[in-house]
Amino acid sequence: MHAHRKNSRPTVTVTRGPAFVRQGNEWAIYQHLLSLAPASSPQLAESTGLSKVTVSAALGNLERLGIVEQTGVRGGSAGRSPRLYAPRARAGFVVAIDVGAEWIRGAVADLTGTVVARLEKRTPARVERLVARIVDLVDTMREEQHISRSEVLATVFGSPGVLDTESDRLRLAPNLPDLERAGLIPSLRDALDAELMVENDINLATLGEQQHGLGRGVDNFVFMSVGTGIGLGIIADGRLHRGAHGFAGEIAVLPAAPVVGSKSDGIYRPMFEVSAAAKGIVAHAQRRGLDVANAEAVFVAAHAGDQRALDCVAEEARQLSWGLASIIPILDPKLVVLGGGIGRSGALLLPTIRAHLADWLPIPVPEFAVSATGTDAVLLGAIVLGVERGRLRAFERLGYATS
After folding, report:
1. Which of 122, 153, 292, 312 lies at a CB distance of 3.0 to 4.6 Å from 297, suitable for a disulfide?
2. d(CA 67, CA 65)
3. Domain with 355 in it: what CATH number?
């Protein structure tokens, strides 16, 4: 997995006021360099609008501080060839952790977003062992790359649920209920001895899809993850939308689609996740006489032409269409990306989903696609978030004011 990608030219405000002028200009130059690297002093002067003298002095200072480095000279021009600069990748590191029902996945990336280490370990059966397992995973990756704890500038922990900041405790993680245990997040903060950012895994997967997948260049899209659980990540006007309390996209709590032909008034219906996630698919298949242990087996049988499995897939598509029909008129996304273990079987689901939405909605149906980031989506998003914070920390450690 390689998480480095060139971005479009940033629009960083160049500080010209009396306070923190030098620091502000150096921060702006660094931001432009992230996009243009390798770049020369004249290129950065043109990009930032600052004078060549100011840019050259700033680059010299940033090089001395270990934030940028020379990478060569630009050839092919008459006269003295200008020196080329780039952000110093190993000026710091970020750690990304993705905790799921079966696996803990980890990655370490440098400040360019390039992954330098990866490791997976089984999620322990007992939550009492979770913190120790995560610490062991992180320490193993660090030691492999000879990275000290002090060089880790940010750690991003991705998991189901939403962090309640008042209690420092996860909520709404029914598929991994032990994660909601009081004291777990504080224990993890203490054990990792680093700045820990806790983020919903689907939000991170959405950031990963935006930066490295099908969401690149799309200002309004949603990432719908369907697997052990079900959730939605929202990109609105190019930014991740979390809502007032972090619960935006928690579509698991929506009511499920009513049974076909039934009158639903006054009749209790289970939550959307109960019907549309993996356990719901398996339960439906078993009621139809299929001997399956997991949702993957249902889709395998459907690909083989088993009519009972095909009926289950059709019902799953109807359930997902029901949830999307509640979302599309509100968010008006240009694109819906399906991810998660079940979402990646979208080839069977998408035609029926499109047909249902076209029947139910009097507005344009968005484009649909299956995620290109696969099982790496959460880690990729965690690296995006971690690198953003890590770069700030690198400057803050030098006594810079970056906001």
Report:
1. 292
2. 6
3. 3.30.420.40
Beta bridge partners of 99: 104
- Which secondary structure element, helix H or strand E, spans residue 174, and what is its range? none
Give the number of other CB atoms < 10 A from CB of residue 43: 19
HSE value, Cβ hemisphere, 13 Å, CA-based, for 234:
18
Q: Kindly report whether the peptide bond that precedes residue 38 is cis, defined as omega within 30 degrees of 0.
A: yes
Structure tokens given for 201 = 């895994």
Distance CA(359)–CA(310), nearest Å, equals 21
pTM of this prediction? 0.87
Which tens digits make up the pLDDT trace of 81-130? Answer: 789 999 999 999 999 999 988 899 999 999 999 999 999 999 998 888 99
* Alpha carbon separation from 76 to 85, 132, 139 (Å, rounded): 17, 55, 46
70 and 118 share one domain? no
Q: Which residues of the chain have pLDDT under 70?
A: 1-20, 75-80, 194, 260-269, 401-403
Between CA 319 and CA 322, with CA 321 as vertex, the angle to 5 degrees is: 65
